[in-house]
Amino acid sequence: MKKALALVLVALPLSVIAEPPAPHIDVSKLPSQSKMIDDVVVPVPSEIFGVLDKLGPRPNWVAVQRPITGVVQPVGEQPQIALMLGSVIAEGFIAVEAQDGTQVKQIGKSVLKLATALAVDKEVKKRSEAISDAADKKDWPTVRKELDGALDDVKKAMQKLDSVALSQLVSLGGWIRGTEALTAVVGKNYSKDGAELLHQPVLLDYFEKRLASLKPKYKANSVVTTVQKGVLNIRPLIGLTEDAEISEKSVAEINQITSDLVKTINSKAP
């Protein structure tokens, strides 16, 4: 498995990879890293989950979920809400893998609630309804497609509102929750191939640069500050060189960092 695989898969839109994963992934046919860096939008593509399925027994995705008991309410200022939105959409992909229709419907409603707080609800209302309808029918490929579409709609709407920075925070929030889930699965049945999916140095560089270039008013946000520190702490753990191997200890450390970040993102300020 090539080291570049994880980065390409994390960045690849689900509209491209919503079909069941092929027996062999031909990395050469996927978009190049240079194109992906400006389009990092999907936090937990199902293709990565498909790779995990091939590395061993099918993961217990139900155990990886963070159950949502009601509609998620916006917390804090816009940067935190953007991170929350990304985290919730990532949770949707996990719920699809767990084939949990109830959670998918709650997530669809939560996506709309958070999008409303960011003034992009008009763009995702139909997506939210489509997610719920597909969940009722247990049509998981359609749910994945609509989740991907909702994320893309949010990004485009934010660009129109000149809120590219918030769009990038949505992507980062999704990556954090997705990485937490990925490390939880890999950690329970550790293998070098599974851990290699975490080798994403270019992607981490991208997030570091975007966080460093945020407007002062966003950088001053306490949640953003915590997330920025967390990303810096994760960077050396995911391998600094092309042939780096990620140890079982590093997987556990990344899981702890991302778990703490997810809690921070979804918590009210003290």
Write a short abstract of this structure:
With 270 residues, the protein is mainly α. It is 67% helix and 0% strand.
Report the sheet-strand fraction. under 5%
Q: What string, H for helix and E for strand, traces the elements in order?
A: HHHHHHHHHHHHHHH
- Give the overall silhouette: globular
Low-confidence stretches: 1-44
The first-to-last residue Cα distance is 44 Å
Mean pLDDT: 80
Count of alpha/pi helices: 15
Radius of gyration over alpha carbons?
A: 17 Å
| Quaternary structure annotation | single chain
Largest sheet data: none
Give the structural class: mainly alpha
Counted beta strands: 0
Amount of helix: 55-70%
What is the fold's blueprint, element by element?
Blueprint: H1 5-11, H2 14-17, H3 33-37, H4 46-55, H5 61-64, H6 78-97, H7 101-117, H8 121-136, H9 140-160, H10 164-188, H11 192-196, H12 201-212, H13 216-219, H14 222-234, H15 248-265
Describe this structure in words.
The protein has 270 residues and is mainly alpha-helical. It contains 15 helices and no strands. It is globular. The N terminus is likely disordered.
